[in-house]
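To whoever is on call:

I kicked off a structure prediction for a single chain this morning and the downstream step that reads the tokens threw a length-mismatch warning. I double-checked the sequence; it's 348 residues and nothing unusual in it as far as I can see. Pasting both halves so you can look.
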Amino acid sequence: MGEWKLARPALLTVRGPGYLPYMFIREVSDGTDLDQVLMVREIDKRVKRDGGEFLRLTLGDRSGQVVAMVWDDVPEVVPLVAAGRPVRVVGRYVVHPRYGPQLNLRALRPAEPGSFELDDLLDGPMRSAEQMEVDLRELVATVPQPHLHALLERLIGARAEGWPAYRDAPAAKFYHQAYRHGLLEHCLTVGQAVSAISATFHGIDRDVAVAGALLHDIGKLEAYTDDPAAIELTDDGRLQGEIALGYYRVRREIEEIAGFPPSLAKQLLHIILSHHGTLEHGSPVLPATREATLVHMIDNLGGRLGSFDRLEKELREGELWSGFDRALGGGAYFAGHEPLEESRRDAA
């Protein structure tokens, strides 16, 4: 595949195989020239006032993302960019007084093999997948109820057919844990929090609550594609939704376990059906048990705190406030901010 260059004179020429020193998006400052590989996150094709087309590209790496506009030669650019595809970009990073950070493109090229590290372009959790699996196994071991324990082993046990997908799947397309291992991170965090708080309030069946927390989002295995670089809804995800997909997946396994108590099945399946909390947010029923209410509340809390993690990764040195975030309904404040990129390296 060829390359695309702006028709007007470029201020910086693409120099054969040469690149400028790599900088993470979070480290780039206003006026910095870039010549490096970034991941195409989104492509939005739009129409100009004169009827012509232009592209709004979202490009990023594991530290953040930036918008780049393509005003000319759209047919030549389209073959070079696809969501989830690395692309070599040449341009200048600028902070527009109204529109914020953006990349003024001068050229685009296919990303040459060996010219980038995929891990540098993909976001990921703070904990390693290996450590999270250890933590998950320890948590599952604390669920002594035999039918629930058997169900967890069938669905997310080390030998379960669906375990590799559960381990690698994202938790969302946007907002929180929208990266490889995000589902494991999110469900484990919710499960650990539910376990810790269950003894605080009267009348909560801890085993039911923990099992429901670990399985509440399992429908996302079928609702999202398995490409970590370009997370999209599948046809089933769009047609049925992750709650329905999760409900039927868990119910099928319950029906394969001899003697599974019907009352226990009702409690667990209700958690899955109600975990979004409201009809407006997609739950077909509202939480009607202590356990379902607890899982919904912790699930919602985990998602919102995950948004803070996402925003903090994009903060630059010395910044305390993020920009407006739709998931939070405002900006996020980080007192004593320590860049999470260094924390991720330490955790690795």
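Update from on-call: the warning came from a stale cache, not from the record. Cleared it. Sanity check on the structure: The longest strand covers residues 32-47.
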